[in-house]
Amino acid sequence: MRFEIVTLTVNPAVDISTSVERIAPYHKLRCAEARHDPGGGGINVARVLGRFGMAASAIYPAGGATGQLLQQLVKDEDIKGLAVPIAGDTREDFTVTERASGEQFRFVLPGPALSQPECRALLDALGAFEPKPDFVIASGSLPACVPVDFFGRAAAIGSSRGAKIILDTSGPALAAAVVGPLYLVKPNLGEFRALVQAPVETEVQRLKAARELIRASRIEIIALTLGEEGALLVTRDGAWRGRAPKLKPVSTVGAGDSFLGALVWRLIQGRAFDDALRFGIAAGSAALLSEGTELARPGDVERLLPRVEIAEV
Fold first, then answer.
1. Strands (E), 11-117
2. Which CATH superfamily, name and number, covers 5-20+34-312?
3. Which of 108, 168, 174, 260 suits 192 as a labelling partner, its CA being 20 to 30 A distant?
């Protein structure tokens, strides 16, 4: 059965990655050839889904020469893109690896401010998207001037059309959205702590806070990512703890998006929660093995699956 999946990215970027032998102040740093990838939460999730053979369409704003490049990069990934024109220039992010130490330095630039008509155009694009989506995946940060309730409004539009809403954002944008019907939210530990305003230092505290949030809201699933410790998946009826394999990371870019893409891929297929969590953790770990702004590769995911430990809690 084919599902219609739409991702929504409000603050996309062209991700540039390169390397230098050593980073030092004041000197000209001769870089290796740069790699350019389409970036931003929803776009990255669409890229991961595509690698596992599940097509997703991407709605995002684009402006200026960088926006034109972003549209071409999205097309090159065989993603059906719906770019909403904006007056500002799409941002760039860049990642530099110091070869001598293996350390990675990430520079994240602010996105262009969006006007009220531009915000409305993004929501209208979601509301008019055909065929009607079965899943809407809203992921990433909000740039300047975007109302804090933007994702909540997007969730209401998607839900009114019968879609299940998946959300990966942070701060006030996350807090404003959890009042609506959400199929899944994916906070990291810091985002979760800010959301629940409760102690979450131990596994018992995290599980308690997640269950209380589900009871007090219309969230069906919470996928709490814990970095190198793995993740915790909580539903109304059960909970599973996954532990990630120990790896030496090459890059940390895209680990969260890779986790979410693989997790959603298995859930949409109707797989069991423990199976979906296993694939999500394997994909998040696989992203650590990819250089620059690359995402998880299916071959690495398959190789890491046996090393992911899952237990019901």
1. 13-20, 35-39, 57-62, 80-85, 91-98, 104-108
2. Ribokinase (3.40.1190.20)
3. 108
257 given a catalytic annotation: yes
Cβ–Cβ under 8 Å, residues 106 and 95: yes
Residues in a beta bridge with 310: 242
What one-character-per-residue DSSP string does 173-227 give? HHHHHTTS-EEEE--BHHHHHHHHTS--SSHHHHHHHHHHHHHHSSEEEEEEE-G
Which residues lie closer than 8 Å to 24 by C-beta, 6 or more apart? none
Q: Which of 126, 161, 124, 132 is nearest to 4 (CA)?
A: 132
The model's confidence at residue 132, banded by pLDDT at 50, 70 and 90, is: very high
What distance in Å separates the CA atoms of residue 276 and residue 99, rounded to the nearest whole number? 35
d(CA 269, CA 169): 24
CB atoms inside a 10 Å sphere around CB 305: 17
Q: Cα angle at 258 between 254 and 264, to 5 degrees? A: 145
Q: What are phi and psi of 7, to 5 degrees?
A: -105, 150
CA distances from 86 to 113, 119, 194 (A): 9, 9, 32
Residue 56 tokens read as 């997703």
Cis peptide before 61 (omega within 30 of 0): no
List 89, 257, 275, 300, catalytic entry: 257
CA gap 232, 31 in Å, rounded? 39
Q: Are residues 132 and 160 in contact, defined by beta-carbon separation less than 8 angstroms? A: no
| Residues 160-172: tens digit of each pLDDT | 999 999 999 999 9
One-character DSSP codes across 226-277: -GGG-EEEEESS-EEEEEPPP---S--TTHHHHHHHHHHHHHHTT--HHHHH
